[in-house]
Each structure stands twice: as C-alpha cells, then as structure tokens.
C-alpha cells in the first residue's frame, strides 16, 4: 500500500485507475479460462451444477406444485388428477345418516327413540318399517293427529318436509331409518319417492294416521 | 508520470466535481435518516423487553414505531445512500460528468420530503398494512417522481459513456435502476391503486419485499464490491469470466424467489414451491460471486487491514454470503417450519440490508467523500470508532438474532409452552440486541461528525486538504493465484 503511516485512514489511495479496470476485465471476459490437464474444469463443474439445479428443480416442482391448482395450499395434498382416482363409494345408508342428522334428529333423537309423549320413536316403529308408500307420504306432507306407535298414543304434528328435501335425500334418509337401530325394512329408492310425489301433486294437507292406514295394504 | 496519466486524473477530478453536490446532498440526507431510523429502531427494540417504554404517547406505540424505523432506514438511509453511490460510480465508470445536477437537487428534495411525510404519516397512525410499503398512499407520487429523475440520470449517464468497455459494477447499477421502479410501481398498483383480492395481496407484498432486498440493495452492494476490490487491491477480479453468468442467474432467480417467504402460508402451494426452487438456484451465482470475491482477496488479506474501505467491503462480502446462506436455509420447508415467524427471518433481511448493503456504502463513502470534497478525514479516532462499532455490531447482532430466533422457533413449536413464557424467555436477548443497536448508533454518530467536518462548507474549513495520488494502471500481470 502506498499509504504513509500518518496518512493512515485519512485518505484512501486507489491502486488502479478506472479505465484500466474496465480494460483489463473486458480482456478477461474475452479470455478462455486457463486449462489444467487439457480441460477447463471450472466451467464444466458449473455446467454440471446448472444442469442438476434445473433437473432437481423441475422434479421438485412436479412433486410440490400440485398441478398449479390455485385452490391447493398444501404440498401434501393428493397429487393425482381429478377423476384419475376412483371416488370412494358412499352408501345410501351413509348419505341418509347425514340427512337424518340435519333434519330428523332434532325431533326423533339420534338414537331414534324420540321423546316420550312428544315425538314417537323410529327405532322399532311399525310405521317406519311399514309400507314405503306410507313413510314417503309422511315425510313429503307431514303428519297430524293421533297415532299409535309401539303401543303408545301420540297426538302431535310433524311438519311437511317435501319442500326442503329432494327425492334422493328423502330416499336416503328413509333407507337409513329403516335399516338403523335394528330396523330391518327394505331400502327406499329415489324413483319411488318421485313416483309418490307425482301422485300427490296438488295436495298440501298433512296426513292423518287413519288416512295412511288405507294406503299400501 | 506521463501526460496520459495526468489527463486521466484531471478527467476524474472533473467528474468528481460535477458529482460533488448532488452526491453530498443525497449522502447527507442518508446519514440523517440513518441516525433517526437507528434511534427509532432502538426505541422500538427497547419496547420488546420494556413494554412500558414510551407507551404513554400513541405516536410512539410499537405498532407505529417499528414500521417507522424500518421505513426510515430503508427508504431514508438505504435509498439515499444508494442514489449517492450509484450516481457517483456510474459517472466515474462511464467517464462522463453528471450533467444538469440541479435536477438531482429537485429529486433529492422530493424524495426526502416524501419520506418525511411518509414517516410522519406512519407515526400519526396512517400507515398501511403492507410490509415495507407502510408509508401512506399520498407519498407514492412524490417518491415516484423523485425516483424517475434519479433513475433517468443514472441511465442517461450510462448511455452517454465515453468508455469502450462496461464493467460488472455497471451491470448491477444499471439493472437496479430499472428493477426498483418495476417492483415499486407493480406493488403500488396491485396493492393500492387497483387492489388485487385476498390471498394475492400477501403474495404481491412478499414478492416486493424480496425484490427490494435482492434486486435493489444487494445489487448496489455488489456493484461496490466489484468496483473496490480491484480498485484498492490493484488486482483483477479472479474468475471474472463467470461474473456475467452469475449476474443473469442471480437476477432471474431472485425475481422468482419471493414466494419462498410464504412457506406454510395459505396461498396456492405452487407459489412457495416455485420460490423454493428459485432460491435454491441461487446457489450457483452465490458460488461464482464467492469465487470472484474471495479469490481476489486470497493472498491479500494483509492489505485489508490498511484500508478502511476494504475493511468495510470485506464485512459486506461476509454479510452477502451469510444472508444468502440463511436465505437458502429458510427456504427449506423443514427448517422454515420451525423458523418461520421468528427473529431469524428478520436476521436474513437485516444481513442483506445492513451487513451487506450498508457496510458497502460506508466503505464506498470513505473512498469517495475525500475525493468529492478534496478534504481528508479529520479524526482517525472517529473513523476507527465507526468501523469498530459497525464490525462489532454486525457480529453481535447476528449472534443475538440467530440464537434468539432459533430459541423462539423451538419454543413456538412446543405446544406445552404458553405464549407468554416465550416472550419472557426472549426478553434477555431483546435487551442484548438493544445494547448492540446502541453500539451501532454510536458508530453512526461518529461517522456523521466526520462527515460534517469533511462536507459541510462551514465546518470543513479547518480540515486538511486531501493528497490524492494518481492511481497506477491495472495490468493483467497483477493477476495471481488464478484458480
């Protein structure tokens, strides 16, 4: 360094002029790197690094981009294309359980036993397990007046649910009710519900037990 | 000394003279912001271990103080210093004077007025909710107009250059001159002017923050390092032929790497994944730039002690390497799972901004200020105090934030530890960091005093005139230990 000791840190002296820096480095850019043992090692190493960076980068992206799906925020989400995986089959019984929990459980209770004196039981009920033409009608238009279930007299009202539930929801709910808690009646198909709904077109009044007993004998 | 040499020196003096006042105005404002920002930062940090501190005044509650400090440092100190250094070096390397400097005063006025209003706005409670864009909307236009003037000056100075060859420092300065307005306007438009919805906002914000450090502050620092190593060591950059590759690779990767800040966030998962890949790609330019710098330094470490600028530049190189390595580590999902949202993430940005960028600016200033003013530094003791405080501060704060950050990360991941206990456990480290921030502030005051003695027309009367010798010509023969 050309600094005098007393000049230490007072002024920084340059060791190269600006234009010579530019010139020398421009020369260096044009120059091939020195060859040792016949090959320029460093550029080869960098070529290798670049290629493997691109290679592993692409693999990583393929595994962690989840098809660039804007709705997927977790890299552990399933990577298969939609449709490539078989949709797990859900039985009408399981679907019906959801409808039951959302709609019927409030009155008939989760265990299907109802509330004595207010809501009749579905578990073991001869009505629930009776002809499907009757239960479909109950759910579609509701039920009014006295009814005997498992030897108990009830006199209350069930609202009509045909407006809020679709055919398949009603079918599934009834299928569930008719095969849960030890019940052993046949499943109800959406077609059967649709058929009854069509037959009842125009009627809005709820059923009475007496009326229902005339149907489906 | 032949007449050619003298011509060269005379030409440089002309350039320095043309750059003198614009650069001094920018750098002087930068230093004032450095002190103000440092004081605010210290106060904000004290609140982390002594919550009652200044809490009586709503202007100085932590939620306002912390962003005000951050913005004062980034836009006040950082940008002003980068403007000063960038304008000077661009003129020098383009071998042309800075024309029509008066416009640059206007730009400096606008810029600093904008920052003042912005910081005031944040303290008054008008801050926005976006990191590093907290300054209220009304300053945006001021800043953009000011920046437009500065950017145009850098670019035109480059395009009327009188040199045949273009050097690495110029690539980085020229690039940075374009990248900042690109990042800033896109962020402003997408977050404020025509705000994008919901989850896109943090994505744009993360991209901006990442770009601001990676495509503005770090390139300016690299420009300084590339310039001063050969300039002061009298030795060409080793493996320079790889530098262009590093440049392009760095730019392309950094522009895409912002998503790595969002690891684990509820954003489309391909965005962090892309960020991670882009960040990992940075290994290549990192190795090249490391070879460039360390290869040039190797065998010459003895010379570093004797040159103040080189000491700062070495600090800056260390800061660059450290912040890059930490950035790589933080973009690994398993590491980020623990360290996300801890002080360690702040450390990465602080390393890029302070340890890498700011130290480079200090080093550059110790070189160009005597040349612009024709005076030498009056107090060697203050110079040493500044360097000592900065070096000590960088080392200690790195340790402080790293240890506290990893402790915080592990505690946060332990469901058995209540949140309040984590805060208590970190109080000791926060106190330690406050002390270190105080040390840094002392160094900055020392620098400011020396700056006033060298640059302020009234106070510099008694300062000795600098004897600047004509630099020798760099030759290829000086190349040694080229691997």
Structure description:
The complex is a heterodimer of chains A (217) and B (483). Chain A has a domain at 92-213: Cytochrome Bc1 Complex, Chain D, domain 2 (Orthogonal Bundle). Chain A is 42% helix and 7% strand. Chain A has helices at 18-30, 41-64, 92-108, 132-141, 167-179, 190-199, 209-213; strands spanning 143-149, 152-158, 207-208. Chain A has a three-stranded mixed β-sheet with strand order 2-1-3. Chain A is rod-shaped. The termini of chain A are far apart. Chain B is mainly alpha-helical. Chain B has a domain at 11-165. Chain B contains 15 helices and no strands. Chain B has helices spanning 3-49, 62-93, 101-124, 140-159, 168-193, 200-233, 243-256, 270-281, 283-297, 301-306, 308-330, 333-339, 343-373, 380-412, 419-455. In chain B, helix 1 packs antiparallel against helix 13 (343-373) and helix 6 packs across helix 13. The longest helix of chain B has 47 residues, at 3-49. Classes of the chains: A mainly alpha (217), B mainly alpha (483). Chains A and B meet through helix 1 and helix 2 of A and helix 1, helix 6, helix 7, helix 8 and helix 9 of B.
């Amino acid at each position: 360094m050309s600094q005098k000791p007393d000049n230490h840190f007072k002024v920084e002296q340059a060791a190269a002029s600006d234009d010579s820096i530019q010139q020398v480095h421009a020369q260096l850019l044009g120059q091939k790197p020195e060859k040792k043992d016949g090959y320029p090692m460093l550029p080869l190493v960098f070529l290798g690094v670049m290629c493997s960076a691109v290679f592993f980068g692409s693999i990583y992206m393929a595994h962690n981009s989840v098809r660039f799906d804007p709705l997927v925020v977790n890299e552990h989400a399933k990577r298969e294309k939609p449709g490539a995986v078989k949709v797990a089959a859900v039985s009408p019984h399981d679907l019906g359980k959801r409808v039951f929990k959302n709609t019927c459980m409030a009155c008939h209770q989760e265990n299907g036993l109802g509330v004595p004196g207010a809501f009749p039981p579905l578990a073991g009920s001869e009505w629930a397990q009776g002809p499907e033409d009757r239960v479909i009608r109950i759910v579609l238009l509701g039920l009014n007046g006295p009814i005997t279930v498992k030897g108990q007299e009830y006199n209350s009202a069930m609202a009509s649910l045909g407006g809020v539930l679709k055919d398949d929801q009603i079918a599934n709910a009834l299928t569930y009710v008719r095969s849960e808690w030890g019940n052993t009646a046949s499943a109800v198909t959406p077609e059967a519900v649709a058929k009854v709904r069509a037959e009842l077109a125009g009627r809005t009044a709820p059923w009475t037990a007496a009326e229902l007993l005339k149907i489906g004998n | 000394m032949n007449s050619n040499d003298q011509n060269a020196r005379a030409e440089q003096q002309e350039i320095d003279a043309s750059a003198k006042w614009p650069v001094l105005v920018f750098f002087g404002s930068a230093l004032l912001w450095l002190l103000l920002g440092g004081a605010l930062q210290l106060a904000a940090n004290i609140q982390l271990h002594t919550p009652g501190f200044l809490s009586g005044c709503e202007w100085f509650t932590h939620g306002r103080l912390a962003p005000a400090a951050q913005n004062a440092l980034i836009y006040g100190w950082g940008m002003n210093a980068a403007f000063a250094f960038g304008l000077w070096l661009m003129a020098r390397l383009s071998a042309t004077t800075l024309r029509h400097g008066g416009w640059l005063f206007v730009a400096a006025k606008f810029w600093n007025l904008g920052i003042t209003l912005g910081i005031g706005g944040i303290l008054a409670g008008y801050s926005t909710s976006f990191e590093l864009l907290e300054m209220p909307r009304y300053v945006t236009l001021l800043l953009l107009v000011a920046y437009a003037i500065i950017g145009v000056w850098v670019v035109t100075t480059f395009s009327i250059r009188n040199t045949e060859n273009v050097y690495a420092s110029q690539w980085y300065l020229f690039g940075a001159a374009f990248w900042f307005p690109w990042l800033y306007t896109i962020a402003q438009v997408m977050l404020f002017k025509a705000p994008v919805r919901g989850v896109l906002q943090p994505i744009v914000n993360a991209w901006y923050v990442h770009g601001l450090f990676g495509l503005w502050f770090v390139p300016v620092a690299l420009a300084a390092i590339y310039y001063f190593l050969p300039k002061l060591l009298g030795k060409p950059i080793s493996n320079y032929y790889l530098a262009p590759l590093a440049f392009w690779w760095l730019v392309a990767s950094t522009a895409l790497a912002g998503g790595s800040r969002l690891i684990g966030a509820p954003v489309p998962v391909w965005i962090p994944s892309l960020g991670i890949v882009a960040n990992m790609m940075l290994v290549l330019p990192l190795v090249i730039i490391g070879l460039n710098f360390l290869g040039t330094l190797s065998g010459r470490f003895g010379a570093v002690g004797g040159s103040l600028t080189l000491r700062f530049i070495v600090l800056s190189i260390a800061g660059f390497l450290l912040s890059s390595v930490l950035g790589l580590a933080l973009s690994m999902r398993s590491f980020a799972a623990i360290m996300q949202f801890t002080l360690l993430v702040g450390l990465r940005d602080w390393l890029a901004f302070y340890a890498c960028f700011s130290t480079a600016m200090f080093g550059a200033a110790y070189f160009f200020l005597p040349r612009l003013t024709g005076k030498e530094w009056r107090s060697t003791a203050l110079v040493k105090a500044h360097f000592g405080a900065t070096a000590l501060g960088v080392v200690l704060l790195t340790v402080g934030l790293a240890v506290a950050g990893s402790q915080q990360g592990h505690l946060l991941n332990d469901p058995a530890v209540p949140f309040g206990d984590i805060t208590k456990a970190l109080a000791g480290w926060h106190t330690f960091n406050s002390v270190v921030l105080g040390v840094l502030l002392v160094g900055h005051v020392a620098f400011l005093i020396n700056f006033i003695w060298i640059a302020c027309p009234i106070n510099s009367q008694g300062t000795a005139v600098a004897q600047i010798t004509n630099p020798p010509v760099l030759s290829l023969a000086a190349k040694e230990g080229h691997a």
